[in-house]
Amino acid sequence: MTALIRPGEAITAGTQLLASSYTGWLRDAHDGVYPLIKRSIDLAVSSLALLLLFPLLLFTALAVKLESAGPVLFSQTRIGRRGRPFKCWKFRSMYIDAEARKSDLQAHNEMHGGMTFKMKRDPRITRIGRFIRKASIDELPQLWNVWIGEMSLVGPRPPVPAEVAQYTAMDRLRLSVKPGITCIWQVSGRSDIPFDEQVQLDIRYIHERSLWMDIRLLFATVPAVLFARGAY
User: Fold this and answer.
1) Mean pLDDT of the chain, nearest integer
2) DSSP-derived secondary structure for 105-156
3) Residue 82 predicted with pLDDT over 50
4) CA-CA distance, 39 to 24, in Å (whole number)?
């Protein structure tokens, strides 16, 4: 994975070529048999994972419910391929008034570039929420999004509409493929990587993507989750 996951690298010539082809909307980056095989893998893996992880999902749901008032699951509108909105599911890791309190915390945003909001010690996160975010358990309900075809196991993370409204033409290239649970920057430092570098790594994935790259990224995700680097 070394050649794939070097944050801070300059955009490759191939990526620059991809960016220069932007004509006001997004090119369809799906071609050949690759998307068919990729979808088959997504369906098989998500089905098996949902079955095997059911006890963990149930235990997490009970823990979230017992700690604080509110629903067990949190759904948020995200933007998928070619700008299509969909409901992205997570275990609720924050108190129910989190969105109302967000504006008061904007001055403490630790994500360089200001496009997304991240705080290492976000006071809106519950105790259970802090643990499941660190272990990436909060993301497991997105296996359902993968199963129904809204997401893929591997692909750029889906942004919220407010972020997309601020995107440049280069940033919008992230939306030319189906969003995923993991990708290059998720195994390279996650939230420790500035937004501009996240965009570069996502566009690099779009240009170089293949089944072999997807498999390598899935295997690289395991130690990234276990060591929780950049997770908060």
Assistant:
1) 81
2) HGGG--STTSSS---TT-TTB-HHHHHHHHTTGGGTTHHHHHHTTSSEEESP
3) yes
4) 28
Query: Which residues have C-beta within 8 Å of that of residue 221, sequence separation ≥ 6?
Result: 182, 186, 187
CB atoms within 10 A of CB 13: 9
Residues 6+ apart with CB under 8 A from 13: none
> Strand, coil or helix: what is 13?
helix
- 89: Cβ–Cβ under 8 A, 6 or more apart, which residues? 73, 74, 75, 141, 142, 144, 145
Q: Is 212's pLDDT higher than 90?
A: yes
Phi, psi of 116 (to 5 degrees): -120, 165
Task: Please name which of 142, 227, 186 lies closest in space to residue 5, comparing C-alpha atoms.
Answer: 186
- Average pLDDT estimate for 58-86: 93
Q: What percent of the chain has pLDDT over 90?
A: 46
pLDDT at 231: 53
Q: Which DSSP helix (H) or strand (E) runs through 99?
A: helix 98-105
- Contact between 86 and 78 (Cβ < 8 Å): yes
**Domain limits, the chain:** 13-227
